[in-house]
Amino acid sequence: MVRGLLQARAAGSSELAVKLTCGAVELAAEAGMLQTVVAEGEPVAELVERSAWAVPPDWLDRWRRTYVRTRPSAPDPALPERLTDREREVLRLLSSRLTLREIADELYVSINTLKFHLRVIYRKLGVSSRAEAVEAAQPRRSSSSVTRG
After folding, report:
1. pTM of the entire structure?
2. I need a labelling partner for 101 at 20 to 30 A (CA). Which of 32, 53, 113, 115 fits?
3. What is the third-level CATH fold of 85-148?
4. From the CB of residue 31, how many other CB atoms can be counted at a distance below 10 Å?
């Protein structure tokens, strides 16, 4: 599946890229692999949308809800404490419409482990809710994507 996505990204023709992506997302849907496809980011997102007919609608809906069109942000030196990679991943998924249970499933952790991560994130960001955490992260994402070019 990953090989198919990599080949699709490297394919010279648009038609071949869509064909390779169809095969890869069909395998991902059969295996219940969502996060791996989401992690491929923007280069694969358009190809997944063009291959939408090849996957079950419920898998595609979950992919769309999980996929966030922003790149993961780099650690912000303005934060009193830096977020770990895992905490940034949790924060990125918080901005999707997934429930906490679905986020825990995507990260292969228990709901209690996810709640622990949330408490740490809230403390580091100085917020007290999911909405506040997502809002606090938005300026950091947009400013970091501007500086990356």
Report:
1. 0.46
2. 53
3. Arc Repressor Mutant, subunit A (1.10.10)
4. 10
